[in-house]
Give the backbone structure.
Amino acid sequence: MRASKGMRLRRAGFGGGVPESRRLHLGCGGRRVLGWLNCDVSGSELDVDLAAGRLPFRDRSVEVVVMQHVVEHLELHGQLIPLLRELDRVCTADAVLWLSCPDLAKVCAGYLADRGRALKDDRCRRYPDYSLDGAPVQQFVNDLFQARGRHRNLFDFELLAWALGRAGFGRVEQVKEAELLAAHPEFPPRRDDDQSLYVTACRSR
Ligand SMILES: C[S@@+](CC[C@H](N)C(=O)[O-])C[C@H]1O[C@@H](n2cnc3c(N)ncnc32)[C@H](O)[C@@H]1O
């Protein structure tokens, strides 16, 4: 497929056209996973702006999509739902989406339980360099909501399932990270079930 006007897309090391893949890893960041087409807004195998409303893939050409900690970066109505509708277009009838993001329900429960201390301790175990720069611990809850301006929207299961349903993915199930890793062991673990929501989504039958 040729890049259409307005599509921000850069081909990286694939020669001619947009590479085809049945397995998309969207918003990959620094985590390039072997056997997948690793896409991000820049510096990836295929640079795609997921907020642009159009994906550079053929109809019904994709069988599985993994998008970890990306949906919260997109505005709900103007960006995320259009992206999910594009995934509906490019996915085969039996395709599976695996999504994860900070869990609005766990974040709010964490604030009420201990102002976010257990959530912050969990982050520090996984990222020992993480720091609140001396701010009281509840600032961690703000960080989960805002990520210094990068987050647009947090989701609990109901809200994410609603957005997926608007785009034709009517069968949404909450899962654990372990289920993603069992299905696709090539993904590096995040070990973030304590603060993240993991779902799979398929088309309604
Ligand atoms: C929190 S990081 C997650 C990275 C990786 N998925 C992981 O699990 O570590 C969010 C990623 O989403 C990407 N992202 C945010 N908005 C995007 C957009 N509009 N188009 C493409 N990628 C985007 C960012 O560049 C970043 O790499």
The first strand starts at residue 9 and ends at 11. Helices lie at 76-90, 104-114, 117-126, 139-146, 157-166, 177-183. The pocket of S-adenosylmethionine is lined by residues 27-29, 31, 40-41, 49-51, 68-70, 73 (CB under 6 Å).
